[in-house]
């Protein structure tokens, strides 16, 4: 373990610095990926696709089929009750 001067509890200064630097690198990667996703939606829009619809499809694809079907059935029931369909 490191000298007492470098240690606070069980965490050394070097270990803490490495963890912070790693988190910072990941935040930068996340920012880059977020920018890439924005670019994909911009491209989709430029090609005539609706980004909102694409995002909705992506959300649906993340769910289990049964979960999605149940949500759709409830939505339909509520919309019928409100005279929307």
Q: What is the strand arrangement across the widest sheet?
A: 1-2
Strand content: under 5%
Helical content band: over 70%
Give start-end ranges of low-pLDDT stretches: none
N-to-C SSE string, H for helix and E for strand: EEHHH
Q: Tell me, what's the shape? A: elongated
Over the alpha carbons, how many angstroms does the gyration radius reach?
Answer: 24 Å
Main sheet: strands, sense, barrel? 2 strands, antiparallel
> What class, by secondary structure content?
mainly alpha
Tell me the domain tally.
2
Give the helix tally. 3
Mean pLDDT: 91
Q: Give the number of DSSP strands.
A: 2
Cα distance, first to last residue? 69 Å
Keywords summarizing the entry:
mainly alpha; 85 residues; two-stranded antiparallel sheet; 3 helices; 2 domains
């Amino acid at each position: 373990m490191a000298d007492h001067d470098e240690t606070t509890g069980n965490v050394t200064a070097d270990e803490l610095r490495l963890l912070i630097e790693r988190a910072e690198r990941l935040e930068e990667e996340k920012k880059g990926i977020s920018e890439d996703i924005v670019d994909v939606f911009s491209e989709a829009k430029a090609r005539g696709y609706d980004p909102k619809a694409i995002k909705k499809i992506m959300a649906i694809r993340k769910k289990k089929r049964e979960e999605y079907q149940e949500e759709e059935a409830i939505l339909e029931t509520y919309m019928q009750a409100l005279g929307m369909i």
